[in-house]
Design brief:
GO terms for molecular function: endonuclease activity. By secondary structure, the chain is α+β, with helices and mostly antiparallel strands. The protein contains 4 helices and 4 strands. The protein has one domain: VSR Endonuclease (Endonuclease, Chain A). Helix 3 links the parallel strand 3 and strand 4. Helix 2 crosses helix 4.
């Protein structure tokens, strides 16, 4: 757990950080709009079973596909990772805690049989949708294949 919040370096920084959205960010909404326009239906901010206070940004519950749209700052994108100089030690710990929580969430969902896709906010929404649709098609094909195997093992009447 991260230690108590440090004193903000300025009132402007404090004000800006307090306005950061937790959900319905611009990249997330763009991806959802493109998916919806293509006829895909999904759950938004879907609660993760067994993990209190954690949600999937975009969940395809039947296919068991979880999509997270991660912000570059908050989730330590390798391309855009920055650590503020003011209160740097606190921020380093905070961002590392976020990264570890992301990894634990992914592992938990995978253990439940879900496929997890993490999209960075800097990715093109159209490219992200292609990745999501590809994963959905893979999952659906695998489910159909398993269902077909079960039917072929069934004893005929």
């Amino acid at each position: 757990m991260v230690a108590q919040l440090p004193v903000p370096s300025s009132s402007g920084v404090s004000s800006r950080m307090s306005r950061q959205r937790r959900r319905d960010t611009a990249p997330e909404v763009s991806i959802r709009q493109l998916l919806h326009a293509q006829g895909y239906r999904y759950r938004v901010a879907w609660p993760i079973p067994g993990l209190r206070r954690r949600t999937v940004d975009i969940a395809f519950t039947r296919a068991r596909v979880a999509v997270f749209v991660d912000g570059c700052f908050w989730h330590s994108c390798s391309q855009h990772k920055t650590i503020p100089t003011a209160n740097g030690d606190w921020w380093s710990k905070k961002l590392e805690t976020n990264r570890l929580r992301d990894a634990a969430t992914t592992a938990h969902l995978e253990a439940l049989g879900w496929s997890v896709l993490r999209i960075w906010e800097h990715e093109s929404p159209a490219d992200a949708v292609v990745r999501i649709v590809d994963l959905l098609n893979e999952r659906r094909a695998a489910f159909r294949e398993r269902a077909g195997q079960r039917e072929s093992l069934a004893v005929p009447d």
